[in-house]
Amino acid sequence: MLVHNGTPNSRHLYGPHLRDAADRGLRLICYDRPGYGGSSPRPGRSVADCADDVRAICAELGIDRLVTWGISGGGPHALACAALLPDLVTAAASVGSMAPLNGDGLDYFAGMSQENVDEISLYLTDEAAVRALVDEAYEGRKSASSDDLARAMASVLPPVDAAVLTGEFAEFMASAQQDGLSQGSQGWWDDYCFINRWGFDVADISIPVLVMHGRQDMFVPFGHGEWLAARIPGAEARLLDDDGHLTVYVTRAPEVNAWLSDRL
Asked: Nearest to residue 21, comparing CAs of 263, 253, 213?
């Protein structure tokens, strides 16, 4: 089972998720997207480009069959693998994933925190200004403690998410981001491909897909999950009234593991 982590992040996996997977007899793996951690940058990449990386990783590890899921910024990458690697990937899950900016009938910004609305709107008109913002944010995040991270994310987290960004999980998030940003901000900047450089159509997905999204999500609005569930052929939707952006990752991963393991 290959996991695509969120933005910005690295290849590291949360301990309870690893233990849950092991209990199910699953081998959980992850990798640094280009520019994160130990991966060379690939400026200008699209979401779809990850399919070649996943195929190469699987070839190196001798894997000829796998399932995959992605959280947040990793969600579109999991869906790319579902669309472009049907000979390799047997099922995929999108967890708190954004939908594409140009999605037909999608009100992209509805329900999104104002901070993210402002940043993405600026990205569409002045990329250089947003790159400067990313570089500034990188300086604050590259060595951020768990408390620093909680403060930085406070404006985009509803109470249900703020409640879980503590203790072991907060420490994991801070450590994983520090490693992901260890070589600079390029990986974070290139991950903005999830806004409008997908390079594939979710309507082309032919394998089983689970779409999971929390209604309380202020980071990636609930409407994105609804849109993906409606546009991906045959998708199973778990649209959760009481969850946010982080809770679907922290507490719902065992459900995702179970759903995917049944489809290996």
From this structure: 253
Determine phi and psi for 71, rounding to 5 degrees.
Answer: -110, 135
Residues 6+ apart with CB under 8 A from 13: 3, 5, 28, 30
Q: What is the pLDDT of residues 201-225, one digit of tens each?
A: 999 999 999 999 999 999 999 999 9
SS3 154: helix
CA dist 179 and 163 (Å) reads: 24
The 10s digit of each residue's pLDDT in 97-145 is 999 999 999 999 999 999 999 999 999 999 999 999 999 999 989 999 9
Question: Which domains, and CATH codes, for the chain?
Answer: 2-261 (3.40.50.1820)
Q: How far apart are the C-alpha atoms of 7 and 192, rounded to whole Å?
A: 9
Angle at 53 between CA 48 and CA 55, to 5 degrees: 100
pLDDT tens sequence across 140-162: 899 999 999 998 888 888 999 99
Q: Which of 185, 183, 145 is nearest to 165 (CA)?
A: 145
Beta bridge partners of 236: 210
Query: Which tokens go with 88?
Result: 């390799």
pLDDT, one tens digit per residue, over 175-204 is: 999 999 999 999 999 999 999 999 999 999
3 state SS of 47:
helix
How far apart CA 187 and CA 29 sit, in angstroms, is 19
DSSP secondary-structure letter at 11? S
